[in-house]
Amino acid sequence: MRQIEFTVRDKDGIHARPAGILVQKMQSFPCRIVIKKGEKEADGKKLFALMKLAIKCGETIILTADGEQENEAISAARQIWEESGL
C-alpha cells in the first residue's frame, strides 16, 4: 500500500475537468484507489464519488493505492496533480 498527500492549490478546488482526468487515469490501474478527505472516503476510480467529497482550495487529501501497480498509480497521480495545477 502506498499513499501520497496533496493540498489543493486551485482556487476552485477539485472541479470536474481535473477530477475527470485523474479518475480516468486511475481507472487504468488494477490496484484499489481511495481518496480521503478528513473522515470521508471516495473510490478514486469513480468521478461522482470524488466530486461528492467537495474538495476546496487549501484542503488536503490522501490518495491511497493498494495492490498491483500501486507505485505506478501514485506516480501518475503525482504527475497529474503537478500538470493540472491543482
CATH topology: Histidine-containing Protein, Chain: A
Q: Using the alpha-carbon principal axes, give the shape.
A: globular
Total helix count?
3
Integer count of domains: 1
**Biggest beta sheet summary:** 4 strands, antiparallel
Which strand order does the major sheet show? 1-4-2-3
- Total beta-strand segments: 4
How do the helices and strands follow one another from N- to C-terminus? EHEEHEH
Strand content: 25-35%
CATH homologous group name = HPr-like
- The span between the termini is 24 Å
Query: Briefly, what CATH class?
Result: Alpha Beta
Account of the protein in words:
It is a single chain. The mean pLDDT is 94. Helices cover 37% and strands 27% of the residues. The protein has helices spanning 16-26, 47-52, 70-84; strands at 2-7, 32-37, 40-43, 60-66. A hairpin with a 2-residue loop joins β2 and β3. The chain has a 4-stranded antiparallel β-sheet with strand order 1-4-2-3. The protein has one domain: 2-Layer Sandwich (Histidine-containing Protein, Chain: A), CATH 3.30.1340. It is of the alpha+beta class and 86 residues long.
Observed structural traits:
86 residues; alpha+beta; Histidine-containing Protein, Chain: A; 4 strands; 37% helix; 27% strand; globular
Q: What is the topological layout?
A:
Elements: E1 2-7, H1 16-26, E2 32-37, E3 40-43, H2 47-52, E4 60-66, H3 70-84
Antiparallel strand pairs: 1-4, 2-3, 2-4
Helix pairs in contact: 1-3
